[in-house]
Structures are given as C-alpha cells and as structure tokens.
Amino acid sequence: MDIDGGGEVAEVSDRQVEVRFVTKLKAPYKVQQTSISIPANFTRFGLSALVNKLLRAANEDWESEPFDFLIDGELVRMSLIEFLLAKGISAEKVLEIEYIKAVTPRKEEEPSLHDDWVSAVDGSSDGYILTGCYDGFGRIWKAAGVCTHVLDGHSGPVISVCNLMPKADSFADQVVATASKDRTLRLWKFGGEEPTGQPKNIRSFKILRGHTGAVQSIAAIPSGDMVCSGSWDCTINLWNTSASDTDDSVAVKKRKKGGQNEETQSEGEASTTLVGHTQCVSSVVWPQRETIYSASWDHSIRRWDVETGKDSFNMSCSKVISCLDIGGESSALIAGGGSDPVLRIWDPRKPGSLSPIFQFSSHSSWISSCKWHDKSWFHLASASFDGKVMLWDLRTAWPLSVIDTHKDKVLCADWWKGDSVISGGADSKLCISSGISVL
C-alpha cells in the first residue's frame, strides 16, 4: 500500500520506507497492523496526519488529534530518514513505529487572578488547588476562577505551600501548610464546603517558629504527620503537624475578635534541625519517611537520613539550584533547575558518576520549578523566568509542548488531576492547562 505525502513537504522525496504502525492505545485508536510504504522525509506531523487518515478510514466520525511516535523507544523529532541515519537503523526492513497521544494541552482555562505574584502552587489533591501569593495569603481553588478559602495570617509573602493529605478520601478535614518570608510556617484546616460566591477566610491552627531567615520551601512526609522546611538561614527544620502535640507546643493563644474567642492557635518548635548547607536552602522534598532531599544556593544537592540527621549523599553542581523534585524511574531520579536555563536529571543509583544523565536546554532563563508526573517514568514539567512552562519526556531532548499563557516570569508549576498543568507567575495569575494525555 502506497501513501501520498500530499503537503507534508514541498518536494516529495523519491525515497520510500516500509512502516508498520503499532500502539498500546485501546480502540478506537488502533489501526490495522499492515505494512505501508511512505516517503522517508515524513516528520511527526506527516505521520500524525497519516495515522488520523487511517483511523478516519475505519471510522468516518473520527475527529483528528495529534500523535507522537516512538522508534526503538525514542521519540521521533526529525524526519524519518534523518532519524534512521542518526540511529544507524536500516531502512531496508519494515520499520515498526509506535504511536501515542501527543502530550500537549487541549484546553487553556481562564486564569485565576490574584492580588500579587503567585509564588507557589500545589496540585497534589484532585479536589482543589492550593496557591501562595506575595500578598501574604494562601488560597484554595476548587476550579479555575473559583476560590473557596483564603488563608489569612502571614505577615509576609507566602513562598511555598504543600498539602498534607492529598489522597484523603474525604475533603472534610483537609490540612495544608504554608511558608513565608515572615520566617514562619502555618498549618490550616478547611472543609469541603461548596462555594457560596465569597471565599471563606480561615486562620491557621498552628504556627511553627524557629527559622531566623525567610522560609523558602516546605515539603510533607508521605504520611502527613510531619513537614520539613528549608530557609535562608541555611538550615532544614523538621516539624510535627498534629494540632494536639504537647512535646513541641510552647504556647497556646486565643485571639479575640468582636468579643468572641477565635479558634485556638498553638505554636510549635522544630523537632530536628539538619545543618550542612552554607547558603539558602531553596528546595526540599520528602519522598520517603527516612529520606529528605534538599537543594541550595551553595550549588549542592543533599540526601538526608532523617533518623541520624546526617547527609548520606552530597552532590555538587556548577550552578545555584533553585528547584528540586524526585520521580521518574522507580521514583529515584533527581530533577533540578536553577540559575541557568538547563534542566538537569541525575540518577544517584549510578556508582562512580555524579554527572547528569539528561540535560534539557530549551528555556532561555532561570528555571524556577520542576515537577515529575507521579504516574509516569518519563514525563516532567518545568517553569522558567522566560515566561514559559515546558513539558518534557526523557525519550527526546526537545520539549513536547511549550505553554506560554503567562506574560511575565513563571515562578511555580505542578501537575493536577494527572492531565493538567497548573502554574503561577509574576503576572498575578494561576493558569490551568488541561487535557494533557500523559498516560
């Protein structure tokens, strides 16, 4: 069977290759697995048009959508003939090409406006988005433009936020944490009330004091009963999050408003302090109970043993590291970005080498955030001061998609609901890009 390339290129190459399309996608995404002859200068766009044509031939109601293509486990980002030559693959045999849904947003939601820079986002709960803002407030969003709660209490910009109970069955007593330039962390509870038109102001139930510098990053242990925080004072503090703890509660206060006592606020002290970094601790991640990862402006990434308080892994980088995340294969890869435009991936399991196993350099400015997709070994998102969010797949050196909805520096990004990317920036907007087919 011969396929005419049509408008794929200005001049159709005489060279043809025999290909067979395969997929792990379910019906109605499957085409017949017969070999066909196509021009060797087809790129992914021509391949995508061809697969859609084959699917429409089997189903006249088929609506076209973009696909990506893998040959020997690597994404195709050049013409077929260039790919085959680069990889030393023979064009004389039938070439098996796997097609997958393209990882790109299908929809951009209306931005959710804040009163200042949106400096932090957490999308780990499917039920809501948590944001932190330079106006000193945290906010809970049920959907784009629907703010249900305002977290009121910090006296400085909120720089980092995290959800302590992202997988809870009930939204009845959600607990979240915020960290601020005011040198404190605060813990908050809220319920799953339906939006009433006006967001509900709530106060924190616990204030965590102890840092002597602005708190730059926080992360919760998977069980949610502790958080850790990294600060400009160069330390990492560990805190208990229970409202009823007595071992670290140093004061209990009742604030009066209108003659009525408000909810009790306890103040907590750090249970442990990890010392070793020599400059600002810019990012912390707590993926397992016994292990914390941290990144710093001192150009190092460290892995800490929680029980001993010692760093069991200390890796030097050539640049300031501003963001860090753990994920990918076996949840073991380290992604980091910082003061240059390069997103780096390390594998600490590889002995004898601390060099990055991947380096992605399509951004043009400081990288402010990087987040692995929690269900994929290959996919992650990055945000940058260049105003862009990029989606990556370890199987290609080029971004899968570039999201440019922000009009200023992007300060934070995360995944939400598995198929959306949320981001906040210096344009005071929370943006939601949805319909992303990662799995």
Structural class: mainly beta
Number of strands: 39
How many angstroms does the end-to-end distance come to? 31 Å
| Gross geometry | globular
Give the quaternary arrangement of the chains. Answer: single chain
How many helices? The count is: 2
Q: List the strand order in the largest sheet.
A: 12-13-14-16-23-20
Radius of gyration: 24 Å
Average pLDDT, all residues: 90
Strand content: over 45%
Q: Report the major sheet.
A: 6 strands, mixed
**Helix proportion of residues, in percent?**
under 10%
Low-confidence stretches: 1-13, 245-262
GO cellular component, one term: preribosome, large subunit precursor
Main location: nucleus
Domain NLE: 17-84
Protein name: Ribosome biogenesis protein WDR12 homolog
